[in-house]
Amino acid sequence: MNDLTVTRQTFDEVMVPVFSPAAFVPDRGQGSRVWDTEGRDYIDFAGGIAVTALGHAHPALLDVLREQGGKLWHIGNGYTNEPVLRLAKRLEALTFADRAFFANSGAEANEAALKLARRVAFDRFGADKYEIVSFTQSFHGRTFFTVSVGGQPKYSEGFGPVPEGIRHLPYNDIEAAKAAIGAKTCAVIVEPVQGEGGVIPADPAFLRTLRELCDAHGAVLIFDEVQTGVGRTGHFYAYQGTDVTPDILTTAKALGNGFPIGAMLTTNELAAHFKVGVHGTTYGGNPLGAAIAEKVVELVSDPAVLAGVNARGEAIRAKLAALNERFGIFREVRGKGLLIGAELTDAWRGRAKDFLTAAAKRGVMMLIAGPDVLRFAPSLIMPMDDLNEGFARIEQAIEDVVGAEASVAADAAR
C-alpha cells in the first residue's frame, strides 16, 4: 500500500493547481477557532468564504448530521424527501418566494436562475428576448455560463467563445442601466453587495432603478445572494434591508454551513415555466444536505442572531478604525453586517495578499476581495473574546508588514 502520509507539499504533487492554499493544513475547528495539523490555533475571520455562519462543529448541526446520516443520505430526483420539503417551506415562509429548486452550490443555483429567466422570456416573448445584463466585477460562479455572466474577464478568458447575449455594465451606474436594459433584455442579475468584486454595497436608488427597468421591459430581476444571504448582512436575505424585491433569488454558502447545498427561490408564476425535465440535478435537495440546511435556517433566522450580526459588524468596524488611526493603511471600510471590506490606500495597493499571509503567521484566517481589499466574513455568532483576540493578532500582522516595508526603505536610503 502506498504511503498515505500527507503534508501541504502533497497538494503540489497530487492536485490540479487551480488553487494556491495557505502554508498550513487545517485539521479541526470549534466555533471560531481552527487548529492545524501541527496543533497551532487560528482565529477564523474567513468563515470558509462566508460559509460557516454558525462556526465550526456547531452541536445542533452535529446532532442533525448524526440523526439524518443514520436514516437516508441520497434517494435521487425520482423521489422527494421530508427534509427538503420542510426546508422549502421554511425558506418560502421567510421570503417572497413560493417555490424552490435545490442544487449543490451557488454556481448551480445561478445556472438554474439564468436558465429559468431565458425560458420565461422564450415562452412569453419568443427567441429574440435573451440578453442578460450583469455588472463589472460581479461574480456568479465558475460554470462556463455563470463565469461568462460574471463581470471579471480573467475568469472566462481562454475557454473559447462565451455564450451570446451577455452585457456587462458598471455597478451602481443608473444611467448606464437605463441605456442598456431594453426590449431584448430577459434578465438582470445583481449582487446586493459585490463580494469578490471588492465588498461594494449597491446604492438603494440603483436597485430601485433595476426593478423599475425590469418591470418596464418584461425582464426578470435576479438577486445573487450566494454570499449575502442567510444572515450575513443582518437580514436573513439582504434584499429585506432594501425596498426592492427580486423575481428570483439564489442562495448557497451559509445555507449548509459547509455542507454543499444551494437553492433558487422564485414565484409560482415563474416556476411554472420549468416543466418536468427542463432542468435537473442528481444530488441537489438530497435529504442529508436538506436536513442540515433546515436547522441552519431555523437557527440563523432567530431575531437575536440577526441582531448579533450587526453588533459584531460594528465591533469589527471599530477595530478597523482603531488600526487605521495607528497605521493609516485603509482608504475605506465598507460593507453590511458581517461582510466587510477594508480597501488599502494607494501606498499599499496590490498588497492585500501580503497582509493575509502575515495574518496566517500570527494565527488568523482572513480573506481578500481582489488585490486591494481585506475581507472579513466570520461566523455570525463569533464570540467577542475571539473577535478581540483576533484583532490583537491582526495588529501584530500589520506591524510585521509595515515594519518590514520600513526596514526595506531604511536599507535603500543607506
From TrEMBL:
Gene: argD
EC number: 2.6.1.11
Residues the record lists as binding N(2)-acetyl-L-ornithine: R142, T281
Major place of residence: cytoplasm
An example Gene Ontology molecular-function term: transaminase activity
Classification via PROSITE patterns: AA_TRANSFER_CLASS_3 (PS00600)
Reactions mediated catalytically: N(2)-acetyl-L-ornithine + 2-oxoglutarate = N-acetyl-L-glutamate 5-semialdehyde + L-glutamate
Enzyme class: transferase
NCBIfam families: arg_catab_astC, argD, PRK01278.1, PRK05093.1, PRK12381.1
Pfam families the record matches: Aminotran_3
Keywords: Amino-acid biosynthesis, Aminotransferase, Arginine biosynthesis, Cytoplasm, Pyridoxal phosphate, Transferase
Subcellular location: Cytoplasm
Binding annotation for pyridoxal 5'-phosphate: G106, A107, F139, D224, E225, V226, Q227, T282
Family (UniProt): Belongs to the class-III pyridoxal-phosphate-dependent aminotransferase family. ArgD subfamily.
Official protein name in the record: Acetylornithine aminotransferase
